[in-house]
Amino acid sequence: MCKETIRMVKLLAPVSSFDSAVDVVKAGADELYCGVRIPSRLKYLWLNRRPECEVPTYEELERIVKYAHSRKVKVILTTVMPFMTQSVEGDLRSHLRSCLNQGVDALIVTDLGILSLLRRMSVEVPLHASTFFAAMNLEGVEFLKELGFKRVILERQLTIDEIREIVQGAGDNVEVEVFFHGGGCSNYNASCYLLHWRLPRLAVKERVNPCMYLFDVYDASHPQAGRLFENVPVLDAFTWCSACRVRQLVRTGITGFKIVGRCLDREAQAFATEACRSLIDLAEKEPKQSSFEEKLEALKRKIVAFNLIKWGGPSLCATNRCYYSPFFTNPYPPFARAVEAKAGRRR
Questions:
Q1: Which CATH superfamily is 10-346 part of?
Q2: Residue range 1-33, pLDDT digits in tens
Q3: N or C terminus: which one in the chain shows less Cβ crowding within 10 Å?
Q4: For 137-257, where are the alpha helices, taking DSSP H only?
């Protein structure tokens, strides 16, 4: 009889259908997370997610839960919705109860209003604090624990040392989770007012969030100089990755990694899960840093090739933009230096 492999770090992966759940479980996910469409007037209430990114029905959620549980995988429901007025309470209460009746194992909560509603509903499943709560230090994590959360998903703008300090300080009192990869941002999740505001696509195909548009940069102090740069991602909402930091993150003692991507297709969801699973297993089993880095480079080439085939352009490892690096919120220092150099030459 084979000895069971015990994984130290959990992998939470996104799904949007039963088929994607099957693929992601086979790819190595320990937990799945998803949203479910609200079959009412509130179907467009979700923040920063189209209805197509959600599991379409409660019946399909039930199929996902049964399949996942048969393979000892948990299913977590995300409630990325605001509770702003009592007029929507009935619909939200009915929706949450319908999802809970399908056997989900936990809820990711993004809003204090939803937390209050869940308490009044006497919900017994564990609650996880979304990154929308912007926990960035031990005090923030402790506060969320006092509110009743069993797991906290940290904000992205942290360094490895800061994460380690939070994990060590929290101890066994609360689980700490971090992102593996997903959309980048120069803002903080909790203070962004662009999440629910989508512009027409205009000439920029597929970039539907205002923070993903490209801008032309001019030197305002020297109008005659004209344009300095064109097609610059000023607001910086482009994809990030932490593949190069996985070994360090595993050693901080985090509970797990969360993959962003409920709006990705099933192939991309499964690929991201498989890649992260490989890195976690490698980080836990490979004692030598040099051996880990050699195998990491091979996997990074595979990731780059997938992105080129899938989307026709570089992203993730090809851009060398890594989560949890120092000065995370300044991802374009070469651009900044070039702007300063051009401005200096014109003075």
A1: Copper homeostasis (CutC) domain (3.20.20.380)
A2: 344 334 489 999 999 999 999 999 999 999 999
A3: N
A4: 138-146, 160-170, 246-250
